[in-house]
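We give the entry.
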Amino acid sequence: MQKQSKFWSIFSKVMMGLALLFFYLPILYIIIFSFNGARSLTRLDGFSLRWYEEMFSDPVMMSSIGYTILIAVIATAVSTVLGTITAIGLSKCGKVLRTSVERVNELPVMNPDIVTGISLLMLFSALAVSKGFVTMLLAHIMFCTPFVILSIMPKLRTLDPNLTDAALDLGATPFQAMVKVIIPQIKPSIIAGALIAFTMSFDDFVISYFVTGNGVQNISILVYTMSKRINPSINALSTLVIVIITLSLIAVNIIPLVKRKAFGKDK
């Protein structure tokens, strides 16, 4: 029994290692070849920042990066506010209405991206709306908001409803009760929803492809157009995206830890 248990323990560790290698080796490959001195994507030829220089000197690339970050930040902020208010409102509604709205909210999540993209394309065309920055931003807000609601609703179900009633009895307005009682309780879920929204917006391709126009393109569309020809600048661009996302995740996880330690020392 001990030999069998040891075997399965080693086997599980090996499989976990292979899985991590499978997930992260392509990312490591991109990072390494972003510093390659040659144009080849398979052969290393010394260390160079050539592709980073080309990336930062390319106005099309910099424009795509700017549009991607701007749309992701605005869509995240708007969808987080809308999703939080909607989730709090639903938690105070009756069971039938809440369940009905939750089922409707799940449709954009389960709907294939290509169907959503074509639907938005037809909608904007029917309304004679010129496709560009505004249409892409509206589309991103539309598909990010349901994920925020889904992240917050489970936490709201665990809250004691008497907390809000107690705040109102003590003289707080409904807005004060929401800001000072409810939101601090669901803050981790709000942050999680915002991170999901930012990630969904940042790397979206299918929906963005159908609703963009007038020279507006995000990083995903740019990489798609560049993938048909060898351009090592893609590696530099991908590495930059990886660094931004990694720093964001580190900040989200480290800052609360630092705050907790600081408050603990103050106490």
In short: The chain has one domain: 63-252. The chain has a mean pLDDT of 84. The two ends are 51 Å apart (CA to CA). The domain at 63-252 is CATH 1.10.3720.10 (MetI-like fold).
